[in-house]
Amino acid sequence: MSDSKFLPSLVCKKPIEPEGEESNFHRCLTTVDLVALGVGSTLGAGVYVLSGEVARSVAGPSIIISFLIAAVASIFSGLCYAEFGARVPRTGSAYLYTYVTVGEIWAFVTGWNLLLSYIIGASSVARAWSGTFDDLIGNEISSMLADHAAMDLPGLAPYPDFFAAALILILAGVLAFGAKESAIVNKVFTAVNVLVLLFVILAGFIKGDLDNWQIREESFKDAPKDCTSLNDTSPCGTGGFFPFGLQGTLTGAATCFYAFVGFDCIASSGEEVHNPQRAIPLGIISSLLICFLAYFGVSAALTLMMPYYLLSASSPLPESFTYVGWGAAQYAVAVGSLCALSTSLLGSMFPMPRVLFAMSRDGLLFKCLSDLSERQTPAVATLASGAVAAGMTLLFDLKSLVDLMSIGTLFAYTLVAICILILRYQSDPGQAANKLETFSIRQLFHPPPQATLMTSSAASFITFIMLFLCIALSVTVTKTSASLQSLECWSVLLVSAITLMLVLCILLIWRQPQSTARATFKVPLVPLLPVLSTLVNITLMIQLGPGTWFRYALWMALGLLIYFAYGVRHSVQRRRLESPPKQVRQQHTSTVDESVQQADD
Description:
Oligomer: single chain
Helix content: 55-70%
Largest sheet: none
Distance between the termini: 46 Å
Strand content: under 5%
Radius of gyration: 25 Å
Number of strands: 0
């Protein structure tokens, strides 16, 4: 392929209904199945394990604000996913949405980020499951592995978790067996999980003490010796509701975002659902609302029952009940947490093979991953992704996995929000053949009443300017937070200037006419909500440390190597574009034959 064709082919777009591509999945899932899948995959390690770790050393009682910020970011992204799920009800989730909107290479990047999120999500939940079970049996597993298989290397777990790796491989086999069977198991475990969380919330508010949200520094004399945090001078913070300041709350939100990433597994099941145009949006919105209420309630109850600096990093809820004198309740909580972590693990592993299948079907990953079993499930992709997730579980600890997962998911969510803006302002099919338009500044403020090629291009250009302004604003606010709190003139002026330019971009996009294409669900308040989603996602990404960004860069380098070495040469869509003359001749011949037939009649 020549250079003149190669570069444009990198951004070639996939049709929503590609010629010759048929769905062989079994449509067996209902709306209730999707809600249970979304709730089950989301209410797992985040509520039973991550909440204790973040509250103890990052955010303190303000973890409820961290969960609120993370939930808002997820709801914004969920609305964008819901619209795409209604418009493009096919397997592939954000990968497919990006492919049909902005082109192939961005689709591969999105899909590769999703795979990172799903693989690490499964690995981290499996480690949390293993840790919870280990606590129930007196830490026998961790003691044995730490003595006989210790890994004393930076960035790696203290020991390889063989138990968690085996659990992933077993569940991969269950998922390979069938989607409906997996959904039934998921609904049972999810019901138990929700009942246990309701008990935790009620018990927490009964036994809680508001003084635990107003702790003073002199109380830290009974803090554990390993109490560590972002604050080097005072390891347990400064007390109060914001013991680690606003920066700690934002950093906690970036990590807590991991707790809400399960909903996108719903979007990956588009070819296995009855009436996906209705079921996918309803499933996403319902599951996110349920999960937000659960996270908010449990994190509030947890920090009310026990001082944040005494929380356990591995099993905070059972130890909190022991602290308030309800020791017997810890066993019920432990059983509920195992059910929750099981459904979360299923939810993390469910979309993995489906994204792999979609990318393989498009020729961007190895062809064998698109093979379906006799039960119409992507068995090869399921077992392959399970093996990779099991390997990650053996090597890395929970915190490293969570941060790396968050950055991949936030990147994918950001691209979906950008794609919503581009999709909404696409030119109408009837307007595409209009005479050549000439661009003018006046047209940005007074565009024609219907979307045209010119208004679509203008909206896309402004969208990308808005993206860079969101990055600039997020970096500026994060790096100058101390100056902003002190109201230093230069920082206030800089943030105000960037904000004004961002508002101008939003107004210019809002002035452009939207596409008249219909959909069963549309994101409200466009372009405001997608822009807010982009801004919040980028801000959360910036909160993650340099080590996380380095590991993420290595993952992306591996993905791009695979794409340019394999995907570029085997892309199905690129092959379609390279043979238009033959298709045109076939269409022309068909048209002529139809004309002759009509004349004969």
